[in-house]
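Q: Hi! First time doing this. I have a protein sequence and I read that you can turn it into a structure. Is that right? Here it is:
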Amino acid sequence: LGEKTYKDMERAVEKSGCHLPTGVETGEPIFGVVRTGVIDYSKHEKVLRTLIEGMDQRRVCAVGYRNLTAGKTKTFHIKPLKVFAHRESVYVHARLAKTPGKPYKTPKYDPLLALQRFTTAELTDVPFRRPPNYDFEKVMNQGFGVWTQKKFRAVLDLTGWAASFARERQWSPGQKFETKGDVTRLSFWATSEPEVVALVMSFGGCAEVVEPEVVRDAVRKTLQDSLDLYC
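A: Yes, that's right. Below is the predicted 3D structure, encoded as structure tokens:
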């Protein structure tokens, strides 16, 4: 997350080390990090600090953003509410603010923006009020998936290593496991169809979607598209 953030964390760890019992070694690192496939956020430190400042001061931020598939940068205004990590990425949860000179249309879902896709971020003089009932846990941790769509129940039949892997983890509040013979049925709440498809694909032949049918069809299409590449 950048050199300054790293130094702040390093100093905090050093201070904590002073409270260790006598005789405990502090020179050898206990934890390690595997860095393959990660994002280098050091070049995004300025954007991150601007967004954090906007949260602290309750000021609207003017941002430039380029999504994963579009080559053109889109500019708009946001009310930044929370920075959070999900797997190997850092995201910003926000509310859309009115952009001067443009009509405002309430979006169906709040903006959820990947930090590495911001091109610019600037504080404006426009204040905003933090939503009084804003609860990050209720917004983001009530179903599987970081992208919030309509909540639905997903049911998967798992075998082999996938069944053991799934039982080790929390997929959503209210998840259920049922075992019949060699098959473990996992039922959980989800908010993102593409992410459920990606999960199923990661399990390979050890997972089958039972419901909903729209996700089952999406997996079938994804498998066919992949097969077409090798035919």
